[in-house]
TrEMBL record:
The gene is lypd6. The keyword Nucleus does not apply. This is LY6/PLAUR domain containing 6. InterPro entries: LYPD6-like, Snake_toxin-like_sf. Coiled coil: none annotated. Keywords: Cell membrane, Disulfide bond, Glycoprotein, GPI-anchor, Lipoprotein, Membrane, Signal. GO terms for molecular function: acetylcholine receptor inhibitor activity. GO terms for biological process: positive regulation of canonical Wnt signaling pathway. One of its GO terms (cellular component) is side of membrane. The lineage of its organism: Eukaryota, Metazoa, Chordata, Craniata, Vertebrata. Residues 1-22 form the signal peptide.
Length: 169
């Protein structure tokens, strides 16, 4: 076979082979979902699905709707087999009460593992929790608010006075 024919053949083969695309969503995908107006102040969206086969299928078919006004977080439950492969993914809007228990647990009867997480923010539940390091509750605002917070200057004075009393005694 002539060298030129060989090069043309290789170029055609390279053109036919397409790179495999990731099954996870990227920031580019999310930017397309970003809202321009909200139905109520503080309105946000979560990926929502019930018992999807994996994270890609959940995110791919998630309806593009706003969460109810009484919710503030996105909740995700990820069930995996004993090899760590997805069995089921459920995502939904959630209240603080729904998010009190996050983490991972082994289901001993069938060797499966379930991890759950909660997050606060628009479409923050892109990924699924797979282990204890990402099966967490991440919040951007304080969970407990108090009008009697100590100001930094007051806190510094308390520390200085306590240190003085401790070292002079």
């Amino acid at each position: 076979m002539e060298p030129m024919a060989w090069v043309l053949l290789m170029m055609n083969i390279a053109h036919w082979l397409k790179p495999v695309q990731s099954r996870d969503f990227t920031m580019k995908d999310i930017i397309q979902l970003h809202p321009s107006t909200t139905p109520h102040p503080g309105g946000f969206k979560c990926f929502t699905c019930q018992d999807a086969a994996d994270n890609y299928e959940c995110n791919r078919w998630a309806p593009d709707v706003y969460c109810p006004q009484d919710t503030k977080y996105c909740y995700t439950v990820h069930m995996m087999d004993n090899k760590g492969h997805s069995v089921a993914v459920t995502k939904r809007c959630a209240t603080l009460k729904d998010c009190l228990f996050t983490g991972c647990a082994d289901i001993t009867d069938n060797g499966r593992r379930v991890c759950s997480s909660c997050c606060e923010g628009n479409i923050c539940n892109v990924q699924v929790p797979k282990n204890e390091s990402n099966a967490i509750f991440s919040s951007t605002s304080p969970l407990i608010s108090s009008s009697r917070r100590l100001r930094p200057a007051t806190l510094s004075c308390i520390i200085l006075i306590s240190s003085f009393i401790l070292f002079t005694s």
